[in-house]
Amino acid sequence: DTAVSQTPKYLVTQMGNDKSIKCEQNLGHDTMYWYKQDSKKFLKIMFSYNNKELIINETVPNRFSPKSPDKAHLNLHINSLELGDSAVYFCASSQSRRAGSTDTQYFGPGTRLTVL
Amino acid sequence: GEDVEQSLFLSVREGDSSVINCTYTDSSSTYLYWYKQEPGAGLQLLTYIFSNMDMKQDQRLTVLLNKKDKHLSLRIADTQTGDSAIYFCAERTDSSASKIIFGSGTRLSIRP
């Protein structure tokens, strides 16, 4: 029973291509996130959606566009891939942010993107 | 501003206790978390502590929070080879909507 799943696990592509990473959670959570982890393991939030609505959009190039067709899915589309986009991308989800909620985030296994 | 800092590496002997330290800057932190990342895997929540607590114990794990000094630590008793991983400290604050700030991670290695 995978709680947060991502596909693909590995993605190798050429510079300039467009690619998508998919994320699904079966936890019934309202909030989903995308994080980027670089080669030094620094983890940085990119986007957050609550009930299909964008609530966090960090300083991320316009080439990155999240899409949430429903609250169980948050996909990440990347246009015109660059060498610097190579990283591991993690999806996560949590319960709605409300009083008393721990807002614990549950992470997917990651998608390792390599841009050649 | 929001910042979470950790030392990058820690090496301990098998069977000893490991203590991983973390400092944060935002005094409005409500929850503080410890996540574990094993090689090639995603982050797994180990434990969390609410900001009005100063200690939490869960089996081999002890979390200490010094809110005055904005210092958080994770102690792993009887460290085993399976504890080798990167440990991330993270904070959630009321000043950053639904955002959790992660530290840089501490790589724990176990020597025989």
Question: Helices and strands in order, then pairings?
Answer:
The complex is a heterodimer of chains A (116) and B (112).
Chain A: E1 4-7, E2 10-13, E3 19-25, E4 31-37, E5 43-50, E6 53-57, E7 64-70, E8 73-78, E9 87-94, E10 106-107, E11 111-115
Parallel strand pairs in A: 2-11
Antiparallel strand pairs in A: 1-3, 3-8, 4-5, 4-9, 5-6, 7-8, 9-10, 9-11
Chain B: E1 4-6, E2 9-13, E3 18-24, E4 29-37, E5 43-50, E6 55-58, E7 61-66, E8 71-76, E9 85-93, E10 100-102, E11 106-111
Parallel strand pairs in B: 2-11
Antiparallel strand pairs in B: 1-3, 3-8, 4-5, 4-9, 6-7, 7-8, 9-10, 9-11
Question: What are the salient characteristics of this protein?
Answer:
heterodimer; A: 116 residues; mainly beta; seven-stranded mixed sheet; 0% helix; B: 112 residues; six-stranded mixed sheet; five-stranded antiparallel sheet; globular
Give an account of the 3D structure.
The complex is a heterodimer of chains A (116) and B (112). By secondary structure, chain A is an all-beta fold. Chain A contains no helices and 11 strands. In chain A, strands 2, 4, 5, 6, 9, 10 and 11 form a 7-stranded mixed sheet that branches. The interface between A and B is medium-sized, with 25 and 23 residues.
